[in-house]
Design brief:
Chains A, B, C, D: It is an enzyme of class 2 (transferase). Chains A, B, C, D: It comes from Taishania pollutisoli. 4 copies of one chain form a homotetramer. Chain A is α/β, with parallel strands linked by helices and 332 residues long. Helices cover 33% and strands 20% of the residues of chain A. In chain A, strands 7-8-9-10-11-12-13-14 form an 8-stranded parallel barrel, surrounded by 8 helices. Chain A starts with a strand and ends with a strand.
Chain lengths: 332, 332, 332, 332
């Protein structure tokens, strides 16, 4: 249950109520807000006078639910706004992994030349084998920060586990909670304590219910700047890497107030399918796209098969502008 | 392996070769064509002189493969062409089930008013429970035929099992092999012996490999007029009815020469998601869409939750025209 | 809803009631029984006096439900009883496909030497490719019938589609409705009209709900002799052919009154795993096992990798006796 | 590739080789062992003389592979040995969550009375909702340590994320890497640096390949004491909580040298299915079982539906002894 407290309730009383109800307390849109589990369906008589308004729920999707707030949330990212009614599809590009200054600089220049604003690049790679390239780590983070400085790009990189979350928060503009780290409360709770935007990727074995509940860890901890990212679920089909769940995206758009970004590169796993899928996503009016691009995909240290080269990325951006236009959106 | 025989080889010799190689023999594009399993990788020396050209394959996707024929096949349906390089997205509409003359007539009038050409309506419903509405059967088929007569629409309906396949072939313009009947060789072999267009729906537990192999039953039996239809696969996600596999569609477009039609209604299972998904499909440049529409979805005898009303269908058609235009396609 | 009519209600009245309620009418355990969909929760006042007892349900699992009948059904197969409280695990053995008289005779002799009673062998193979071995068809059925004659074995073979269901019913002692044919109402309705035992295999993309509902087609049509067979579902895991769903078996044992047989050979897909899985199944107190055995698996025309040779099958039978003994069962 | 170095190679040279080959260096079974990725198929000529023996692999399953070591590894846990050729099935019991001293003491007494040796109890619960009970944390760990002291039991508890891994390592005898934390390199690398036994649970969306590769993080980091735990994968079936993958267990037993433990409680999600599934697992000759038991399951703070009460647990232990005996195993 979500409870908006009346304006006059003082800090001490809020503390008491928070403890009593075993609730989370946040300030949201200039209100003092308490949140308990969805098991609570009515408010105790004793506190009726202190509550301005309340919402009951069927499940623990509460702050993210359109029942609580119908308007889509906005997340400010430098000059760019994600979500809301901006009708922006933010095209986030860059390599799977940061591999060198030369490589990440070339990606930055590509984005600038296309008037794009957000650069992606993995530094801590959540590889499933210890014998694969594990990412450049802190050195990579510093290269991203350098690019931000030089090119005025916002940067996004993935937190793999809780051991380096502080560094990620420090160096990036959007914290990406990776698909394999999505249940990691160490990460989610750290994200709740900052006000930086957080992009949560859906785990490939994760239901929509669990996915949105992960966002509740961040929202109920006090950070309202959450973006969801669908990147493909694991099914019986093996000809493609994962299965992009656009039915699920339609559900998220209908039942949650969070901006939704899509990652067709990871879903497909093969470059030939990235452009048609990106167009499909764009036609749904999504709030953003994550597309992997590499100066020379064949020699990429990770995900070689799915990264576009710069020519393909440039052509795709142009095509997406046309599709976005057809549904009243703009690629930014 | 596919073998194109030279022009001079006579009927008796073709028979001998067919028997010897345990092959299928068809006439395709004015050639005598033999097809064996993909296990055959080289042609016997003895027949080298009689073979004009041959293609070896890694798997039993052969006639449908772009290795054999890169150009997308066309399927003629009255005045409408599905597939090829027409850049047509054929919008097939109509109710889940034929329920009455009044109902199917209203759907026909809707389609005519929107300049659409193909009417859908189930007569033999493949329900999973014996206690649900099973369809109007032959009576429904006759209603569809009447609509074809009166409105000049092509009609499509589903074959549920082999016991009524002859009726389906007789009364409809496109034979729909249902998702639950997709492995039914009784149906597939009957479809192979006609030259009517056949739309094969992917089973919800069916791999892309098996799906395309089902088309090989029809193609290798002599009917080249096959269309594939993706309608959602079954995954762990339960908030939507199925998961529309657009990654799979990208694969089909890349590796097969068959036209591909999509059915977002069955995939989603809920009307609110049909429009966004239909737009997504259209942006991929697909050859057609199957969209369920009912004069009053709330009282529909099957699939009530996923059918659009006529106002929604009309609005969707208009929106799809804009999206189709953005990728160089036309809704017909 | 299931309604037991009182003893005095006459045939004409039963007909009336059947029509009125859109019900199925069967004789079961010396009662006249009407069955409607689960949507019906209360009985009309007008017929209260004619109804002896009735059962309402949450879903269309009705005749198969333990709510209706707690005791497990028995299916008589020659001298062997499947199900009930016999504590029999019927070990059904034989090759994937009938390939020759010599082959199927050797399997028959193996079974006789081990005091087993039921021989399996496919005649119409539901292959997913037209270019694979499709089975011996009618000729195979005749060989099975010959073995029954000579060795006194009951025989089981699979119906692939409705075109040959009459032959299957004629020649076999248990009709196997294959995993790919499980939704085929042509087959299910034909099975409902005979009183021969019917073994329904779960489709690999089929929920337990749909699986048991398939049995309702047969039961509500008048044939009470249904056995369910779990043979593995399709999941994201590819190191094994399918995933044997023993959680599902526990559910079937708890909530349905149908005997349950397991097919670890098809689930696993590899001979090395058949023995451990067969032991696991046996320890659950299942009513039967289907195990593929071939005189020389390496040259088998289908499913070569998963068939046991006769030595392995013999050793397994011995091991299963010990495991069965530990849970109070007997291998027959 | 795994390389066993000859006895004489000195520390400095080992360092050089490790750097040169980008290898992991461990001491295993009194050898100096280097491990590189499976991409390396042959050894450089320059080091041939220093290498005693080497093994090449198809995939990054290397140290865990039967190609490298056929004999099953043993993990010593106080007096109990898990794995090897002991033919022990270690029955680990206890509540889902540690809730109070009284509760965990009663579980300890139950285990002692049944001559069992390992107590489970969650302290950091990886809940998918922030509004659910999150576990007692450090306080719970201290209770587990107290029980170990008083009852001589080994204790196992789950690491949820990397923020508390040091505490887990300090207080428990087996570190459980939870299903949702299985890709967490912060945890895996911490586990690699201790020599305490590590039980890795398979993620519900995790392939067998990825599952075993997770163990390679620990093994290649120097800790040989790894046990795998299958606890059910997520499939389309919803009548049970997950689907226990015993086909996968057969694969693990055939292709890896790691002890395998099963968790039927989490797989099933309902108490009625735990006993039949536990018997099934036992009949496969597994190295252990994790079974949840609670003094009063109805009031449990987590997983109420799947925990056995003490009477059921006691009866199950007795039944498992009989089944274990049938396959030559002993419950310890």
């Amino acid at each position: 249950m979500i409870l908006h407290l009346k304006a006059g309730v003082n800090a001490q009383r809020i503390n008491e109520l928070t403890t009593e109800l075993k609730a989370f307390h946040i300030r949201y849109q200039e209100k003092d807000v308490l949140i308990t589990g969805a098991g609570m369906k009515t408010i105790p008589v004793a506190i009726e006078k202190e509550v301005e308004k309340f919402w009951a729920f069927d499940s623990d999707i509460q702050l993210a639910s359109t029942i609580y707030q119908k308007e889509k949330r906005t997340v400010q990212l430098g000059d760019v706004v994600i979500g809301g009614t901006t009708n922006h599809t933010v095209l986030i590009g860059g390599p799977c992994s940061v591999e060198s200054e030369e490589q990440i600089r070339s990606a930055s220049e590509l984005l600038k030349s296309l008037n794009l604003s957000v650069l992606r690049g993995g530094c801590y790679k959540p590889r499933t084998s210890p014998y694969s390239f594990q990412g450049m780590g802190l050195e990579g983070l510093k290269l991203l920060a350098k690019m931000r400085e030089e090119y005025g790009l916002a940067v996004i990189t993935e937190a793999r586990d809780a051991t380096h979350i502080d560094e990620i928060i420090e160096y990036t503009d959007i914290i990406q909670v990776g698909a394999k780290a999505m249940y990691d409360q160490g990460i989610l709770r750290a994200c709740a304590k900052t006000d930086k935007p957080v992009l949560i990727k859906r785990g490939f074995g994760t239901t929509l219910q669990e996915f949105v509940q992960a966002s509740e860890f961040v929202l109920s901890g006090g950070n309202p700047n959450v973006v969801l990212c669908e990147r493909g679920i694991r099914t019986f089909e093996t000809k493609t890497r994962f299965t992009l769940d656009l039915c699920g995206v339609a559900w998220l758009q209908e039942y949650t107030n969070l901006p939704v970004i899509l990652d067709p590169s990871h879903a497909m796993g093969y470059a030939y399918g990235v452009a048609p899928l990106a167009k499909a996503c764009t036609a749904m009016g999504v709030d953003g796209l994550l597309i992997e691009a590499h100066p020379n995909p064949k020699v990429a240290k990770s995900d070689a098969s799915q990264q576009l080269n710069y020519e393909e990325f440039t052509a795709l951006k142009r095509d997406l502008e046309t599709v976005a236009g057809a549904v009243g959106y703009k690629i930014v």
